[in-house]
Amino acid sequence: MNTLQKDEVESLYKSTTNISDKLLIKLLFEARLRIDMALSLFAEISFVIIIMDIKSN
User: Which residues fall within 8 angstroms of residue 35, CB to CB, at 6 or more apart?
Assistant: First the structure.
C-alpha cells in the first residue's frame, strides 16, 4: 500500500482551492480515514444539507 508523507499531504492541501477537496484531504490525513469511509461521510452530509434546504423552502 502506498501512503503519502506528511509534507506531501501538506503540499497537496496547499495546492487545492476547492473547500470540499481541502476537507476531504484533512479527513483522510488527520482522522486516518480510508477513502471509502470519508466519501460515505460526504454522502451523508450532502443528504442532510439537501433535506435541510428542502425544509427551509
Answer: 28
Between residues 43 and 7, which one has the greater pLDDT?
A: 7
Q: What is the 3 state secondary structure string of the chain?
A: CCCCCHHHHHHHHHHCCCHHHHHHHHHHHHCCCCHHHHHHHHHHHHHHHHHHHHHHC
- Assigned C-alpha cell, 22: 481541502
14 in a structural domain: yes
Cβ(13)–Cβ(22) below 8 Å: yes
**Predicted model pTM:** 0.58
C-beta atoms surrounding 24 within 10 Å: 19
Give domain status of residue 1, yes or no.
Answer: no
Domain count, the chain: 1
